[in-house]
Write a structure and sequence with these properties.
Elements lengths: L2 H10 L4 E2 L5 H13 L8 H13 L4 E8 L2 E13 L4 E11 L8 H15 L5 E3 L6 H9 L15
Parallel strand pairs: 4-5
Antiparallel strand pairs: 1-2, 2-3, 3-4
Helix pairs in contact: 2-3
Length: 160
Amino acid sequence: MNLSDATKQTTQSHAGSPATLDDLPELAELLGVLFAQEDEFQADAELQSEGLRRILANPEAGRVLVWREKGHVVGMANVLFTVSTALGKRVAILDDFVVHPNSRGKGIGSQLLDAAIDLCKASGCARVSLHTDNSNIDAQRLYERHGFRASTMLAMNLHL
């Protein structure tokens, strides 16, 4: 095995590990990074931790996958499950997807996205949907490379 193969093997072993409650502080920090670049959301570590806690406590609701480097979470994919009446099957929403800026450009996002898609397939999902800011061209390119296509549907929200 050459150095490139060894590096690839080590890197792959970190892709898509399930998050734990111990990861909550680092996950909330990553969500802060994500929400700082999005126009619509505000970071609130307490609220984000509570939401993540609810997902981790109920695997039927969703799963949080993480990427670790040197024991620290540097990437996350939050996958939520629901049922589509249009498809009559289980579907997924990739609700949060972020790699820490210091760890970008290493292929982490691509491998973490692959792990999230594999999770959705293994969970019997017929579709994965996501939202991304119109201005986040880099993320859009990543999603397109993995088979996502722009929808003609318009996302609308009502905050209660």
